[in-house]
Recover the amino acids of this structure.
């Protein structure tokens, strides 16, 4: 009896599975974007606003009439920040609705895995502000786009900033910087740059790894208390960030000597700590919290006022919401650029999308037109430079909101370029990739 | 009716001792393998290959390795993920450090390295048993996690600790399409399963089972516990090492130590417990249960919601997925504590009498 029930259940399940696997037909004038999001798990507080901003911008694009009439469509898949689930989501979504245009995994681990698949599937991987730093080199990483920022560039800007505070980079000699980082490829990315800069200026780098998910940091901050570094750089994500700030408070480490990367500088990280986080600084990947920008007002008016927005209205314009929005904007603009070459009002394939991403040219006028004036600086990519813009600034939490406290900085090409070239050459050798030449780029 | 042995007479010892003594079993296995090799590539799409079948095959191989140690030799291990990591990183190092190294040889050497590491970390089993041994193997997990994160030599000085490998080339056959990957993994799995089946029926397997059932009695009848236990660790780690190398080379292409974390060890142990300890088929059932079911639930729930006109958010789906998955584990363990493989063999017993049960 029991067995029969099981058999019936199993065959029903099999029927269901085959129903899932049949892909629906697609209309020609739709551009499909898979959304690899995480709204559950240890990183959900940060993943959710990002996904909300990401989806809202796609909705806004449709409300504005699409890209030359082409509608944006998307589908979400929950990755839980786990690499294997992320890959499964990617595989599930990449072929739907005529094929994915580009994919944005929002996880360094998933990015690493998709980097292997992108050249085969011909789907660009956009990693705005994360991923491999050396993937800036489009000659080797033909399908990766760390648009607007890499971790090496971010770390470089942080060093420049504290150098300026000390009165010159040469004044950093003998100083000690502790890096409290998420013990994963994400957290380890800045180490190479910091060590390079340490050699140049004679400061000392102390490495303090924190194991996933980062709620246990007592031992780490005990070490901070013992070694009394002049500055602490924080490379955390999700619950790790607020835990770090709480521990800094508990050990009495001054928050104004702490600098987070742009993934450690949003509302969910400091909100719960409140006044304890006052004075804490973080990099702003160009934008900060932008509740007064035109694009946010437009979203509130066109989407949230009509009940079509994603997520709570109060979070529109927060730091991570804006990060998602800008990530989404970049892909939409790349579609527009690609349409300019391959036919307006037509669907763009993954390969054409790559051309669009490599020829992205968002000048001030374009940004103003999108309501992003003052939010970010112009971006221009090329076949060999997949980052497009190396500007960042610093913002500080005043107990209630984030305020900008520095000028714009640019990542130092003289430091970054040789490192990018060296690391990407090594990758090319390992993977037996022949780097693209400027002639290949024209194709 | 179709599955009965009446009238089947064995006239030689050879016929009586073969791996699958009942012809129906033998034919069923041949048919399944043939279907897997020929039918499946014709039927399924790329998503099934890359997201479901390849991970399933590789984790089945790993679960088989764990089953040899836990199910057949009775030595509990929480260091399975570590053995996979050793296999993967050793194979990677053979690949990058020796010019012209064939990938298949690197994978097998990776397995060999894992076997050596397994012997070293299996040594405590000579002194401690049960939960204490589990804790000792946990040390292996943490040691190797640490080593691959911190010792830069293992990762060829990669700045972020992650490594990547080119596509496998096997005698001119470049394995990069999903079908190739599937066939390659299937081939390896079939060879290793046949090896395991024979190993377990032979002298060595019987020694392991004797140790598992009562080690004092086994010693009295002349089985050397040191030899039996350490060979079990070695063989099991070899399987895990090869599975780890395949996971890295074929499934991921580039990986970081987190791919072989303690979660992986626990996952493999659960596969063996749910699938069935001490049964080769249990490894496959367990792997299918753990790999496929969550993905299946994840895809089914929105559809079921759609039938009732409900819009299900992805967050809700993943919560419900955890709830159902957890309940199913509890359900199976209550209904059949010996795992799905036992359910299967009970079913077979019934089938032999069907349609006239006594």
């Amino acid at each position: 009896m029991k067995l029969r029930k099981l058999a019936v259940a199993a065959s029903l399940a099999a029927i269901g599975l085959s129903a899932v696997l049949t892909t629906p037909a697609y209309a020609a004038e739709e551009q499909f974007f898979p959304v690899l999001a995480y709204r559950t798990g240890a990183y959900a507080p940060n993943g959710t606003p990002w996904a909300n901003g990401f989806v809202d911008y796609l909705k806004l694009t449709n409300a504005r009439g699409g890209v030359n009439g082409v509608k944006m469509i998307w589908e979400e898949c929950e990755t839980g920040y786990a690499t294997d689930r992320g890959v499964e989501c990617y595989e599930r979504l990449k072929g739907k609705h005529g094929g994915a245009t580009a994919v944005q995994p929002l996880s360094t681990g998933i990015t690493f895995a998709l980097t292997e698949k992108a050249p085969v599937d011909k789907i660009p991987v956009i990693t705005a502000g994360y991923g491999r730093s050396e993937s800036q080199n489009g000659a080797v990483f033909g399908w990766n786009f760390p648009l607007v920022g890499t971790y090496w560039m971010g770390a470089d800007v942080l060093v420049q900033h504290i150098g300026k505070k000390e009165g010159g980079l040469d004044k950093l000699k003998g100083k000690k910087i502790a890096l409290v980082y998420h013990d994963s490829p994400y957290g380890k990315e800045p180490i190479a740059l910091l060590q390079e800069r340490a050699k140049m200026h004679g400061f000392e780098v102390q490495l303090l790894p924190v194991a996933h998910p980062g709620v246990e940091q007592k031992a780490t901050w005990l070490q901070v208390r013992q070694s009394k570094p002049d500055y602490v750089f924080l490379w955390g994500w999700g619950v790790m960030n607020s835990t770090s700030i709480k521990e800094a408070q508990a050990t009495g480490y001054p928050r104004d000597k702490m600098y987070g990367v742009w993934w450690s500088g949003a509302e969910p990280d400091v909100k719960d700590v409140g006044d304890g986080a006052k004075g804490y600084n973080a990099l702003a990947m160009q934008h900060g919290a932008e509740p007064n920008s035109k694009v946010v007002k437009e979203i509130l008016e066109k989407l949230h006022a009509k009940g079509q927005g994603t997520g709570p209205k109060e979070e529109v314009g927060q730091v991570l919401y804006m990060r998602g929005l800008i990530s989404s904007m970049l892909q939409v603009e790349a579609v527009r650029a690609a349409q300019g070459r391959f036919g307006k009002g037509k669907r763009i394939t993954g390969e054409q999308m790559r051309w669009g991403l490599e020829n992205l040219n968002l000048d001030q006028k374009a940004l103003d037109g999108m309501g992003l004036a003052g939010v970010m600086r112009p971006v221009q990519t090329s076949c060999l430079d997949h980052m497009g813009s190396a500007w960042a600034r610093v913002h500080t939490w005043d107990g209630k909101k984030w305020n900008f406290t520095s000028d714009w900085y640019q990542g130092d090409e003289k430091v970054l370029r040789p490192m990018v070239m060296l690391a990407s050459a090594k990758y090319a050798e390992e993977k037996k990739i022949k780097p693209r030449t400027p002639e290949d780029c024209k194709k | 009716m179709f599955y009965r042995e009446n009238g089947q007479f064995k006239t030689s010892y050879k016929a009586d001792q073969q791996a699958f003594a009942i012809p129906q079993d033998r034919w069923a296995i041949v048919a399944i393998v043939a279907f897997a090799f020929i039918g499946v590539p014709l039927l399924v799409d790329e998503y099934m290959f890359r997201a479901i079948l390849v991970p399933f095959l590789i984790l089945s191989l790993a679960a088989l390795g764990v089953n040899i140690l836990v199910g057949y030799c009775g030595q509990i291990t929480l260091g399975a993920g570590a053995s996979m990591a050793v296999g993967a990183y050793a194979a990677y190092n053979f690949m990058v450090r020796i010019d012209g190294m064939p990938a298949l040889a690197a994978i097998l050497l990776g397995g060999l390295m894992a076997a050596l590491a397994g012997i070293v970390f299996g040594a405590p089993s000579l002194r401690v048993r049960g939960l204490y041994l589990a804790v000792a193997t946990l040390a292996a997990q943490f040691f190797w996690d640490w080593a691959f994160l911190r010792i830069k030599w293992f990762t060829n000085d990669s700045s972020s600790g992650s490594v990547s490998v080119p596509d496998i080339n096997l005698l001119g056959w470049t394995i990069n399409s999903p079908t190739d990957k599937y066939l390659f993994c299937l081939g390896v799995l079939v060879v290793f399963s046949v090896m395991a089946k024979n190993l377990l029926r032979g002298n060595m397997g019987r020694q392991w089972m004797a140790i598992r059932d009562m080690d004092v009695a086994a010693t009295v009848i002349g089985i050397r516990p040191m030899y039996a236990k350490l060979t079990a660790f070695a063989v099991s780690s070899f399987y895990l090492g090869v599975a780890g190398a395949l996971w890295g080379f074929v499934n991921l292409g580039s990986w970081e130590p987190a791919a072989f974390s303690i979660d992986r060890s626990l996952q493999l142990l659960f596969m063996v417990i749910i699938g069935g300890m001490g049964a080769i088929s249990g490894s496959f059932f367990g792997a299918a249960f753990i790999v496929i079911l969550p993905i299946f639930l994840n895809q089914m729930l929105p559809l079921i919601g759609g039938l009732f006109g409900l819009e299900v958010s992805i967050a809700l789906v993943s919560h419900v997925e955890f709830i159902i998955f957890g309940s199913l584990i509890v359900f199976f363990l209550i209904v059949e504590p010996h795992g799905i493989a036992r359910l299967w063999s009970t079913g077979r017993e019934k089938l032999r009498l069907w349609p006239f049960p006594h």
